[in-house]
């Protein structure tokens, strides 16, 4: 009996030991990126004299989200600061887990206009409060083989989808004579979040999109979207310029590898691929990037990606957290992100810097792209909405559903979702 | 006499109460709580709302749920069959006397000793496209194409089954071996004298006498496979594109992304399914001493 | 072909197959863990090195030692407590005739087929409300319940083999029940107790889902979560470091298992055979 009492006391003691307040920063990514974050936190400690603990998360996005959601849902006081994928900001903000930053911004005269207006408005604002700041931004781009275009007499990359299809069909036919594995246009069509990015770009470039109507419902089944989806299906099955495994396998890396191995003329991908293409001996000097094409009568569109930094509503060290947020989004740090990790900053002034302009000239194009970026809808149930859309869009690409039907069904399911949850 | 009798009973209740209390608080109450939660809508910032059977209706209409259920059942069938066949084979082997038997018998425990998640990561490496053992062997054998083992639903399915079989066959083999060793040699001697060949001896003597041990082992293994989480979460994460999600993995995903009540609904259904299967087993095969 | 001949072939091929079956993943893990660079698989040469081990053991940011410490603490607290609690119950069940004597073992056994996912959700909410997420308590309490079937069944089997006459004799001498349990029964059931301690200890190391959902960082996460989420220090997925961490954890577990294999096998087969 005595022993049991002793053990129980030990148990209670160990509980008590966990309670010392700590300042923790949760971030995930590849090992290299995490190594860099360690340097950032060390620098922060030295400069500001505030001790900060880095909690490493895996590289897998889904796992990162789970690791952040678990303590937040339990209203834990740690982590205090964390990075969020642009699509979770809506969910995490909608769950009321983010600390509004307006108070700090006004108090410290923090210049919010130094950041991309579209990004701040579409992603970092929830119910008129700023709840996050961009660390880096991403947008979809069109990569193309400069050398092949020149070879076949084209001087400029296509600015409309219709032109792109013509170029791709022609060049693919000729290139296939020697290279059976050559494709005109590769893009992400597998059933995952990336499919929504691609879909959104096609839609928005034809004046469509996934957006909220005045009643706060999400509208997906529009004429413009149907046109875009039909076009995507055509690319694979009628025009034949996109490979049949587009809707089963192709994600970012698969697409990049096809292009990098010289088997594609056009590629839709994120900015990260640029560095890797440039480092490839075969491709060096042959790759161009530009904004994505649009439909006749539309405007170029690029889905907004990237990562944002926010403060937990349950944090026990909010002031220190705010210092860190300011630090990470400062000019010096953002410039270093570009130079060391090839990340595209959320701050506009970095793009004007002379050293950056010299070393990373392609950023000029990106700046335009980001200014015209479209965000995916900010909603607490975004992951469920995304699942519904993924299922039906992918089914259309797989010819299991007609595009009209696919969007109609998706709309019905989304409407029902909103009916369930209200708000 | 009467007082002593009552005192005994009281003592008994006192003795069992800590165990029962712990189990009640941390197993039974949570299960009940999950079941109750499944009738609610539970989203972070809204108050909990009673919605009756709505979560279950959502699940029934959701293809993800049915896919997960199908996957779990097929996985269980494949895994349990393979490990039983292999387990019996290994047990038969280790029953014989031959040099090295002791070492093999000892080695049999190794997969069991390794934590499941660690074995999952080892298999993740074995199946890796660039650095995996399988593709390395393929290349060594002269094939130019590497296979993306975890890249398609079908190959990922078998990849998971193999990893699971590797981990759990030892358990089966040990139980069956112990059962085999309990069968007296005389029965076999008599059968051999009567002219029964091996196959006959196996099906008419060995299997029937192994039945009690086999059934218990099968119940546990089937329940384990139906509720599997660790191996799948770490090896494939439920991928590619959610194709290898078992019902437990689906429940976990719902707990961390959607309506908590929806996660509770999946979890409750998982409980019913596992329990249901077990009861079915007991009914079908019958256990005399119960 | 004679049966004897077939048997020999079966034994030889079977042994080789069994050996390779078990050893191959272990071998691959060790090979990669000791290799300086994984590029030997895509055209380089193999270089033996301890660098991976040094990295995972000395890099504080990887928190490997923290995860191990947490696992050891949780397992060490859980095992003795659950054995004590279970021995009280096992004693009552095998020695005292009371209502529930037959049902309780069945109830406890049935728990071992419950899916963890059906338990962890509610536990998570509960622990969250108490602010216990990411603490040792959040793990120990559920582990006590979760490993109790294991402990109870082993002890039941051993206790039931100890003659009740010993109790009667001591009772007549005026001894109290708890004293009988600790002074007479447990010493006689030592192999069972050891089995139980070992199996529960290993089970705590192995447990994953509760730890995954009830803890959030290195201050309470166990080694199973640590390795499953391991990302390493360099490169894409640092397989070398990951395998080094894996081997570092599995080696003592394998040793433990091999040294105490008799106890373990008896413990495992007890429930299945001797009922």
Q: Could you explain the architecture of this structure?
A:
- The complex is a heterotrimer of chains A (about 425), B (about 290) and C (about 280).
- Chain A is α/β, with parallel strands linked by helices and about 425 residues long.
- Chain A folds into two domains: about 20-140 and about 305-375, Periplasmic binding protein-like II (D-Maltodextrin-Binding Protein, domain 2, 3-Layer(aba) Sandwich), CATH 3.40.190; about 140-305 and about 375-420, 3-Layer(aba) Sandwich (D-Maltodextrin-Binding Protein, domain 2), CATH 3.40.190.10.
- Chain A has 19 helices and 14 strands.
- Chain A has helices at about 1-15, 30-50, 60-75, 85-95, 100-105, 115-120, 145-150, 160-175, 195-205, 225-235, 250-260, 270-280, 320-330, 330-340, 350, 355-360, 365-370, 380-395, 405-420, and strands spanning about 25-30, 55, 80-85, 125, 130, 135-140, 140-145, 185, 210, 220, 265-270, 285-290, 300-310, 375.
- In chain A, the strands form four sheets. In chain A, strands 1, 2, 3, 6, 13 and 14 form a six-stranded mixed beta sheet that branches. Chain A has a four-stranded mixed beta sheet with strand order 8-11-7-12.
- Chain A is globular and about 80 Å long.
- The model of chain A has no long low-confidence stretch (mean pLDDT about 90).
- Chain B has about 290 residues and is mainly α.
- Chain B is about 75% helix and about 0% strand.
- Chain B has 13 helices and two strands, in the order H-E-E-H-H-H-H-H-H-H-H-H-H-H-H.
- Chain B has helices at about 1-35, 55-60, 65-95, 100-105, 110-115, 115-125, 135-140, 155-180, 185-195, 200-225, 230-235, 245-255, 260-285; strands at about 40, 50.
- A two-stranded antiparallel ribbon of chain B has the order 1-2.
- In chain B, strand 1 and strand 2 form a beta hairpin.
- The model of chain B has no long low-confidence stretch (mean pLDDT about 85).
- Chain C has two domains: about 5-35; about 60-275, MetI-like (MetI-like fold).
- Chain C is built from 13 helices and no strands.
- Chain C starts with a helix and ends with a helix.
- Chains in contact: A-B, A-C, B-C.
- The interface between B and C is large, with 95 and 94 residues.
């Amino acid at each position: 009996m005595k022993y049991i009492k002793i053990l129980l006391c030990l148990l209670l003691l160990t509980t008590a030991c966990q309670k010392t307040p700590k300042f923790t920063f949760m971030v995930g990514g590849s090992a290299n990126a995490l190594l860099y974050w360690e340097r950032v936190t060390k620098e922060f400690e030295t400069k500001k004299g505030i001790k900060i603990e880095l909690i490493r998360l895996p590289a897998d996005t889904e796992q990162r989200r789970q690791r952040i959601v678990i303590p937040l849902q339990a209203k834990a006081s740690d982590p205090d600061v964390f990075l969020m994928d642009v699509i979770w900001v809506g969910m995490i903000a909608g769950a009321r887990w983010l600390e509004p930053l307006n108070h700090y911004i006004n108090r410290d005269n923090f210049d919010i206009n130094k950041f991309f207006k579209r990004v701040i408005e579409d992603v970092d604002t929830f119910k008129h409060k700023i709840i996050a700041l961009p660390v880096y931004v991403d947008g979809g781009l069109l990569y193309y083989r400069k050398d092949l275009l020149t070879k076949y007499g084209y001087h400029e990359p296509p600015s409309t989808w219709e032109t792109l299809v013509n170029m791709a069909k022609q060049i693919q036919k000729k290139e296939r004579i020697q290279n059976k594995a050559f494709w005109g246009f590769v893009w992400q069509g597998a059933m995952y979040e990336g499919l929504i990015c691609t879909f959104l770009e096609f839609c928005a470039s034809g004046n469509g999109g996934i957006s909220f109507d005045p009643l706060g419902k999400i509208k997906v089944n529009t004429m413009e979207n149907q046109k875009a989806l039909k076009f995507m299906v055509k690319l694979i099955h009628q025009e034949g310029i996109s490979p049949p495994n587009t809707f089963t396998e192709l994600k970012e890396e698969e697409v990049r590898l096809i292009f990098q191995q010289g088997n594609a003329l056009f590629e839709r991908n994120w900015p990260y691929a640029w560095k890797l293409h440039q480092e490839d001996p075969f491709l060096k000097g042959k790759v161009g990037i530009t904004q994505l094409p649009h439909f006749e009568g539309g405007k170029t569109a690029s889905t907004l990606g990237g990562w944002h930094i926010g403060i937990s509503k349950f944090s026990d060290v909010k002031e220190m957290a705010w210092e860190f947020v300011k630090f990470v989004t400062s000019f010096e740090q953002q410039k270093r992100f570009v130079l060391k990790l090839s990340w595209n900053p959320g701050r506009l002034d970095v793009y004007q810097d002379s050293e950056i302009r010299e070393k990373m000239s392609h950023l000029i194009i990106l700046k335009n792209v980001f200014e015209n970026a479209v965000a995916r809808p900010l909603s607490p149930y975004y992951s469920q909405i995304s699942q519904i859309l993924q299922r039906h869009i992918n089914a259309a690409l797989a010819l299991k559903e007609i595009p009209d039907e696919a969007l109609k069904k998706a709309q019905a399911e989304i409407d029902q979702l909103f009916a369930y949850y209200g708000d | 006499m009467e007082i002593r009798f009552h005192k005994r009973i009281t003592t008994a209740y006192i003795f069992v109460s800590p165990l029962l209390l712990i189990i009640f608080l941390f197993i039974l109450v949570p299960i009940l709580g999950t079941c109750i939660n499944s009738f609610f809508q539970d989203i972070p910032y809204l108050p909990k709302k009673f919605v009756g059977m709505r979560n279950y209706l959502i699940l029934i209409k959701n293809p993800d749920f049915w896919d997960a259920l199908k996957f779990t059942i097929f996985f269980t069938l494949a895994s349990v069959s393979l490990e039983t066949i292999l387990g019996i084979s290994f047990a038969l082997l280790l029953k014989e006397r031959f040099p090295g038997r002791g070492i093999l018998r000892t080695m049999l425990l190794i997969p069991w000793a390794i934590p499941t998640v660690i074995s999952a990561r080892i298999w993740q490496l074995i199946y890796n496209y660039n650095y995996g053992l399988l593709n390395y062997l393929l290349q060594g054998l002269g094939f130019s194409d590497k296979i993306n083992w975890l890249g398609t639903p079908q190959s990922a399915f078998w990849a998971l089954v193999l990893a699971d079989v590797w981990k759990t066959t030892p358990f089966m083999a040990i139980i069956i071996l112990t059962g085999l060793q309990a069968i007296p040699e005389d029965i076999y001697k008599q059968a051999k004298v009567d002219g029964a060949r091996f196959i006959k001896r196996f099906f008419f003597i060995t299997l029937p006498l192994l039945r009690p041990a086999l059934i218990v082992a099968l119940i546990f293994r089937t329940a384990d496979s139906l509720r599997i989480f660790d191996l799948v979460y770490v090896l494939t994460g439920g991928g590619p594109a959610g194709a290898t999600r078992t019902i437990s993995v689906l429940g976990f995903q719902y707990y961390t992304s959607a309506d908590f009540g929806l996660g509770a609904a999946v979890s409750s259904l998982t409980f019913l399914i596992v329990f249901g299967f077990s009861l079915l087993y007991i009914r079908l095969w019958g256990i005399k001493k119960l | 072909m004679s049966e004897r001949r077939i048997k020999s072939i079966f034994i030889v091929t079977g042994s080789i197959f069994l050996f390779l079956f078990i050893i191959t993943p272990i071998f691959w893990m060790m090979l990669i863990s000791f290799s300086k660079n994984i590029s030997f698989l895509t055209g380089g040469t193999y270089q033996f090195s301890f660098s991976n081990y040094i990295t995972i053991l000395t890099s504080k940011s990887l928190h490997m030692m923290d995860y191990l410490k947490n696992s050891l603490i949780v397992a060490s607290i859980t095992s003795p407590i659950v054995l004590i609690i279970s021995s009280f119950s096992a004693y009552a069940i095998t020695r005292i005739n009371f209502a529930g004597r037959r049902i309780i073992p069945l109830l406890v056994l049935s728990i071992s087929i419950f899916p963890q996912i059906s338990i962890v959700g509610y536990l998570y909410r509960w622990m969250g409300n108490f602010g216990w997420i990411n603490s040792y308590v959040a793990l120990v309490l559920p582990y006590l319940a979760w490993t109790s079937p294991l402990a109870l069944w082993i002890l039941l089997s051993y206790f039931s083999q100890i003659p009740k006459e010993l109790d009667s004799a001591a009772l007549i001498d005026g001894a109290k029940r708890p004293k009988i349990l600790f002074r007479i029964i447990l010493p006689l059931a030592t192999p069972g107790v050891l089995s139980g301690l070992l199996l529960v200890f290993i089970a705590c190391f192995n447990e994953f889902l509760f730890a995954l959902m009830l803890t959030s960082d290195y201050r309470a996460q166990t080694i199973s979560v640590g390795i499953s989420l391991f990302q390493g220090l360099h490169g894409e997925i640092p397989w070398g470091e990951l395998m080094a961490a894996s081997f570092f954890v599995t080696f003592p577990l394998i040793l433990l298992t091999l040294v105490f294999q008799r106890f373990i096998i008896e413990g495992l087969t007890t429930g299945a055979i001797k009922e």
